[in-house]
Amino acid sequence: ATLTAARASTTTTPALRRLLSALAVLEQRDGQLSTGSLSAVTAAQRLGGTVHAFVAGSNIQAAAGQAAKVAGVDKVIAVDNGAYDRGLPENFAPLLVENIKKGGYTHVIAGTTAFGKNVLPRVAALLDSQQISDITAIQDDKTFVRPIYAGNAIATVESADPIKVITVRGTAFAAPPTEGGSATIEAGADPNADTATAEWVSENLAKSDRPDLATAGRVVSGGRGLKSKEEFDRIMLPLADSLGAAVGASRAAVDSGYADNSLQVGQTGKVVAPQLYVAVGISGAIQHLAGMKDSKVIAAINKDADAPIFQVADVGLVGDLFEKVPELTEKLSKA
Ligand code: FAD
């Protein structure tokens, strides 16, 4: 890929579009399609050619059926094998490569999720392609836009590889409707049914009844200003519940043990773009802003009027969070 100046519009011709075929790699868990992975379908559609969706795992019919209903999907390729349940890259990458070669795809697209970041680089290596990561826009079939340096610069990259392997930033490609499609479902090739080299042993998941951080419409995040895990929970959780919001945290809060690692927002955490983002006791370091500055409305509560978070905030409240947040929570709960 080479860096080029930004181009204004798509240059894909109708004849070329007919030759484009994209494989959107979807994620599923326990038979339930992950809506967070559907951004891959939206990106695939923007290329203008055929769109196939790929799902794999045990009892895959349910997830395949859901994928078939997603608007814009022409065909679903499904592989029914428990070896692919948890998206282990050692098993999933050869599976994808086999199906990519079989289907003759020009583009392979997944979300910039833990799964996408884990599996697609292996796929790219096996195909001898250079991966194009975390794109936010498509200019034409070989030209893509992606943020670099924690979003401080935008690169437009052009790829000459015959098969483009791409991960997409979910906040830049809204998920398509999950109803209205009527794709056919086809069984895909399964190269390593009996020779899977990696086996899933166990996982410890942080369980929460609150909305999923990556896709929530509202997010309340706490920072080092919360001072301790006890205070983080006491102040932030009721605020989240009063707004029906997901809970996020700055890296300083995570590193200090106030919040779980899975809640980190920012350059090395999750990238979110909810309707409302409330930053509590967060200074607004560029690495944090990289994960939330595209939120529609940003509200900040900080005792330091010069905190950089106020430069990106639409609404700001200068004051002691231990006083202001419980007051706000009470008002919201009554509203
Ligand atoms: P601080 O910067 O310490 O800010 C705390 C704020 O709380 C201050 O503004 C203070 O005024 C306010 N405050 C304190 N007490 C109160 C009170 N009683 N009432 C109201 N306000 C109060 N950071 C991330 O968040 N996400 C990332 O993904 C991330 N990735 C990184 C990657 C790299 C390579 C590096 C070098 C850094 C990364 N960081 C990331 C860290 C980042 O640089 C900052 O250190 C971090 O975001 C600071 O967190 P904070 O705002 O909670 O803490």
Concise description?
This protein is an alpha/beta fold and 335 residues long. 28% of the residues lie in helices and 25% in strands.
Mean pLDDT level: 92
Number of helices: 10
Ions, cofactors and other bound molecules: flavin-adenine dinucleotide
Q: Could you describe the largest sheet, including whether it forms a barrel? A: 7 strands, parallel
Instruction: Report the span from N to C terminus.
Output: 53 Å
Structural class estimated from helices and strands: alpha/beta
Instruction: Give the tally of β-strands.
Output: 18
- The global form is globular
Helix proportion range: 25-40%
Describe what you observe in this structure.
This protein is α/β, with parallel strands linked by helices. About 30% of the residues lie in helices and about 25% in strands. The chain has ten helices and 18 strands. The strands form four sheets. The protein has a seven-stranded parallel sheet with strand order 8-12-7-2-5-6-13, sandwiched between helices. Strands 15-14-16-17-18 form a five-stranded parallel sheet. The chain has a four-stranded antiparallel sheet with strand order 1-11-10-9. The longest helix is centred in the first third of the chain and has 15 residues, at about 90-105. The relative contact order is 0.12. Bound molecules: flavin-adenine dinucleotide (FAD). Flavin-adenine dinucleotide binds near residues 251, 291 and 322.
